[in-house]
Structure formats: structure tokens, C-alpha cells
Amino acid sequence: xxxxxxxxxxxxxxxxxxxxxxxxxxxxxxxxxxxxxxxxxxxxxxxxxxxxxxxxxxxxxxxxxxxxxxxxxxxxxxxxxxxxxxxxxxxxxxxxxxxxxxxxxxxxxxxxxxxxxxxxxxxxxxxxxxxxxxxxxxxxxxxxxxxxxxxxxxxxxxxxxxxxxxxxxxxxxxxxxxxxxxxxxxxxxxxx
Length: 192
What we know:
By secondary structure, the chain is mainly α. 69% of the residues lie in helices and 0% in strands. It has 10 helices and no strands. 26% of the residues are buried.
């Protein structure tokens, strides 16, 4: 059922308004079904590479709308399963365009829920990708804000530490010295 509804939505047989099948599904489904929807969308990420740029952008924009609706449904509820569900949305980070302020804001809403290795890794990998593929003036402040607000744990894997170092150097080199200093201080206090 999830796959069919999503396909109809992607193929423009269903639009996302309050009376659409997808919206009714999001509004009336429990956390388990919403998690399956997120999982399905995440699995489709690889197939985006086979689409034209227009098709890819269309699908990405539709996923962002679903992301927004899920956040609206669960944000601020504070329950364990719902927080975990918001954390799982981070898996969809590659659908987000950082140069779009609205989409960038979605990531900021989810950062407090990034409490495990996988979530932090997805965020850091996306930031590395963005710094390498976007105009510096557009993206350096966004990257700095996201890293500054990321919930680093008391233990970070070596790979994550290297990504953070690379991003902090990037911030120093691209006019974000204050943010880079803040991140260095935060990590130093944590013992890194």
C-alpha cells in the first residue's frame, strides 16, 4: 500500500493537499507505517540517478513536502517513538537542497533528534558533499550553523572526527571563523 500510494504521488496521480491519499495516509497512520514510508523513500534515493534532472527535481520536491508534513505531525510531541521517527527522517537528507532556505530549515529542525552514529554520519556526509559541490558564498554559513547545532556525542568515530575537522577547516577558509572557533571550543570541552 505504501509503495502504491507513493508511486501515485510521484507520478502525479495524487497531489499533496489535505484531501489527498498521501496526506490522509500521513495523518492517519501510526509511527510504524510512517517509518515504513520513510524507509521506502530512502530506498528510492539510489534510483534518482537514473532520472533526468527535471524528473529528479520533481521527486525531490515531493519528498520534501512529505518530510514537512511528517515534521508537522510529530514535532514537539516529545515521545520516544516519535522522536526516533523524526531522527529517521535524516536518512532522507540527500533529497534536500541546502541553497533553499526552507529545506535547510527542515534539517535544522531535525538536528536535535540526531542521536546516533548513523544520523550524525548522514549529516556530516551531506555537509562534505555540499561543500564540494556548491558555491562557497551560498553554503558556508549553512554548513557552519548545522555543525554548530549538531549533537556531538562523547565518543565520535575516527571517520566522523576527520569529517568534522575537514568541515571546520573549510569554515575557517571561507569566512566563518567565529562559527569554526565555537565548534572547536565545543569539541575541546568534550575532550576532542
